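Morning run. Coffee first, then this:
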Amino acid sequence: MTWYWIALIVFTTFWFMEFVAWATHKYVMHGFLWSLHRDHHVKDPGFFEKNDAFFLIFAVPSWLCIMLGMMAGSWISVSIGAGIAVYGFAYFLVHEVFIHRRLKWFRTSKFTYLKAIQRAHKMHHKHLGKHDGESFGMLIINPKYYQAELKAQRKRRGKTVVSAS
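And here it is:
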């Protein structure tokens, strides 16, 4: 299999995982496994959350695809596993590090898209109940959050210009 087919499978799997994560978040985390996800919305003291168990739920299929694919010589399976793993790494960086700041690596961003993701996630977390909620995705968000962030940035720039004169 040529490298571009492998890259295409990894890339496609990565973006497919956004929809898997959205559906899992909405129907599983806010559904029958709310008992694991609840502490993510209602923060208990400590660094770790029960919600961190979902890392394993997503990591196991990735690991199995990579391991079993390598054992069977199936580069399609390995590529799918790699796509899931790359999404998991992106999730870690965006959700855990950038949005929730569980590690103090990225404190702020000037990128409108990243600020819109933060805004959408903040709106998700304003709902504390199992059945309430909005904005269940991580990378693909409702355009209204992007528009709201653009409006907020224009307002901040306007205040900066007015206060400088």
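The chain is about 70% helix and 0% strand. Good start to the day.
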